[in-house]
Amino acid sequence: MILALLSLRGERTRAEYVAAAMTALDEPPDPSLPPVTIIVPVTRSTPALAGTLRSLAAQDYPTFELMVVAPQAESLAPGVLPPYVKVALAGGGGRTSLLQTGVRAAGRRSEVFAFAAPSGLVSPRWLRALVAPLADPRVGATTGFRWYTPDPPDFWSLMRSAWNAVVAGRLGPGGNDFAWDGALAISKASFFAARLHEYWTDLAVAIRDAHLLIAAAPGAMVACPGRVTARQFIAQAVCEMSQARRHYPRLWWSALLSHIIYCGAMLAAVIASARGNRGAEWALVVLFGLGMLKGANRATLAKAQLPHCKTWFDRYSWTTTFWVPLATWVWLYVLISSVFSPRQRTS
């Protein structure tokens, strides 16, 4: 119960941070905002790619170029590119090669590099939200995150959304532990000062070594409407937590220990309740109630950042609240499984 209470610390501050940022985005865009190159690495065309690129091309931002980077021209299906998109070909290689090619091909006028995932839909204010925190000289990079909005949904796709919401809920004011390269912005000066043109991995470490902060960017959330099977979800989750174990060991250990304690307490309370212990019943009520309260707050803040997904949240965001106890056990399984998983890179 103490862990559950401690997890609620800062929720009010995070809500105020999101509200202030979203209010600022209601103002017309400032013409003096720095020119940006949006880089989208694409290994192969998917059904979601066309919609993603259309949403990125429709940004309410003064000056930006949209660039798609692919291994070869055949990687892009006919008709998938919106007008005025720039294409750069890496000639093969993995994701890091694509990103490096995009940086080299960016326009000289660009002062900021923004990186976007090849799947997911963003609002027209996504780029402004992502760039805004860079005005603070203490900030080296800004990050948004994804929110899974499966439509039509099924059990495992909604479970992935509830599982993923826990990670999204860690982003808030001040410095953050990690950055997601599916919604990331960094000034050109900081990018080369941190030598990220040579090494793309361990971005968070490079930013911290440069004595800069990773700022969360409210409004830069990406809605991902796809569905998954149980096997696909577990494989993705285990792979991501395996990466977290490597790149953010303190964060990973904190997550593992807290989930062991939380799930152990839940199991002990259920057993004691079955034996007639009334105190254990109240302990369960408190444990579930605090977890669900935090889940509800995560969904509320995500809904504010994704106004174009209001209908989805009105129908399905209850799962983020009421599935918290079940999602906690899924988290424990994923964290333990990540110990035995090879550390592979996900897209």
As a percent range, the share of strand residues is 5-15%
Q: Over the alpha carbons, how many angstroms does the gyration radius reach?
A: 21 Å
What can be said about the biggest beta sheet? 7 strands, mixed
Q: What is the topology, as strand order, of the major beta sheet?
A: 3-2-1-4-7-5-8
User: Cα distance, first to last residue?
Assistant: 37 Å
Which secondary-structure class do the elements indicate? alpha/beta
The ordered H/E elements are HHEHEEHEHEEHEHHEEHHHHHH
Anisotropy-based shape: globular
**Total beta-strand segments:** 9
Number of contiguous helices: 14
Low-confidence stretches: none
Average pLDDT rating: 90
The helical percent reads 40-55%
Could you explain the architecture of this structure?
By secondary structure, this protein is an alpha/beta fold. 50% of the residues lie in helices and 12% in strands. It is built from 14 helices and nine strands. Helix 9 (230-247) packs across helix 10, helix 9 packs across helix 14 (324-338) and helix 10 (249-274) crosses helix 14. It is globular, with a radius of gyration of 21 Å. It starts with a helix and ends in a 9-residue tail after the last helix.
